[in-house]
Structures are given as C-alpha cells and as structure tokens.
Design brief:
Blueprint lengths: L2 H15 L2 H4 L6 E2 L5 H11 L3 E5 L6 E6 H9 L17 E8 L2 E11 L9
Parallel strand pairs: 1-2
Antiparallel strand pairs: 2-3, 4-5
Length: 123
C-alpha cells in the first residue's frame, strides 16, 4: 500500500472513530431566512463552503440548510429567481444534532441534516 493510500485510510479511520468535536474546525456559515438565494450564494463563495445554515434571527436557532445541490434542483432547474428568499427554496424537514461537552454546547458544533435532500436508501 502506498503512503498516500495509507494516509487516506488513516484519515477515514479518524473521521469514523473521532468525536465530532475533534473534527469540527470552524463555526457554521449562516444566513437569515430573509436572505435572497443570491446572497446565500455570495456568502457560500466568500466563505468557500458548499452550504449555509439558515438561522432564525432572534436566537440563531437553525431552521434549515441550503446547499449547492439545492441551487441546482430547487432554483436553476426549477426556473426560480435568485432574488427570492432562501427559506422559500430550502428543503423542508430538519434534524439538528447539537454537540455537547459536559452539558455545554460546543461553539460552532451544530450538524444539520435536511431529510428531503439526504435519501436514507438510495434507489
């Protein structure tokens, strides 16, 4: 096995068996629900990420996630406007996993899963 292959496998092993708090390296990138699709895309480009968490302005609670895949399926192919609010095109159905250590929320440690975009059983 090459050194590169061993390094890749080691990284996979660390990802699978490491606590999420050891993997999360930055706070999630967020936009408010009133942000336009264009603003969300500009934020994603500026921050060099493939998704943004849509959060409630009052308390920062996650409402959903908007991804580049959503841009393709829910905006471009659907013929929707980039000026519309991102909350109108983000998937419905949300599960939020908060990462805690000693009953305290870890900064930036929020994982959001949008059930509508992540099929459990491909096919």
């Amino acid at each position: 096995m090459s050194d590169r292959s061993a390094a890749i496998l080691q990284g996979d092993y660390q990802s699978m068996y490491s606590p999420l708090s050891a993997i999360v390296r930055r706070a999630p990138v967020t936009v408010g629900p009133e942000a336009s699709v264009r603003e969300a895309l500009e934020t994603m480009e500026r921050e060099r990420v493939g998704s943004v968490i849509v959060t409630r302005p009052e308390d920062g609670a996650p409402l959903g996630i908007f991804t580049l895949h959503d841009l393709l399926r829910r905006v471009a192919l659907a013929g929707n406007d980039l000026a519309q609010p991102v909350i109108e095109v983000m998937p419905a159905g949300l599960a939020v996993l908060l990462l805690l250590r000693r009953n305290r929320l870890l900064p930036g440690a929020v994982v959001v899963l949008a059930a509508a975009t992540l099929p459990l059983y491909p096919g």
